Amino acid sequence: MDNEEALKVIDSMMWVKKASIFLLLLDYALRNLDSASDTQKKCQEAVDKCWRWLSDRGLSADELAYYLDSDDMQSGPLAEGNFASESVEQNSLILILLVIGFFANKAYKIVGLQEQMSEPVCEADESSAVYIVAYIERIGLSDKLSVYLSAHVLENRGQSTF
Predict the structure, then answer these.
(1) Fewest CB within a 10 Å sphere: which of 54, 87, 106, 135?
(2) HSE on the CB side for 5, CA within 13 Å?
(3) Please, are residues 7 and 13 in contact by the beta-carbon 8 Å criterion?
(4) Residue 34: which residues within 8 A CB-CB, separation 6 or more?
(5) Tally of CB atoms within 10 A around 74
(6) Number of domains in the chain
(7) Is residue 128 a contact partner of residue 75, using CB atoms and an 8 Å limit?
(8) Mean pLDDT of the chain
């Protein structure tokens, strides 16, 4: 499945389904950060918070946005400049940050606080799926994405025949 086909399937999905798939793929992206334990630890913390927010909305939007908005994060362990340009590590970090932004954006919208979103969070709306898919491809996870999306397509075909 190429990126264009993947995006068509993703666009047809409910937000929760696509968000879950993105988070599942981040488990693989996190492995690419083994050589940078501080970055990996902060990214894992952020991914865990996204899962928690998805399951019970037990976190505020600000808690999710922290990873994108905090100077400590952006000049510290989550700085893209910590890695060689276009490296699998840098691209994995960017993918993780894109997905965290995707969650923070939704969290702000659900509680009606869109006007409080920072620019990076505001840009991480549903249209950011095109960038998320591009970075999934850059780090070699397109096959895994295709498996998840194919399962979704088959699941929906099965439901529509009854």
Answers:
(1) 87
(2) 11
(3) no
(4) 40
(5) 16
(6) 1
(7) no
(8) 92
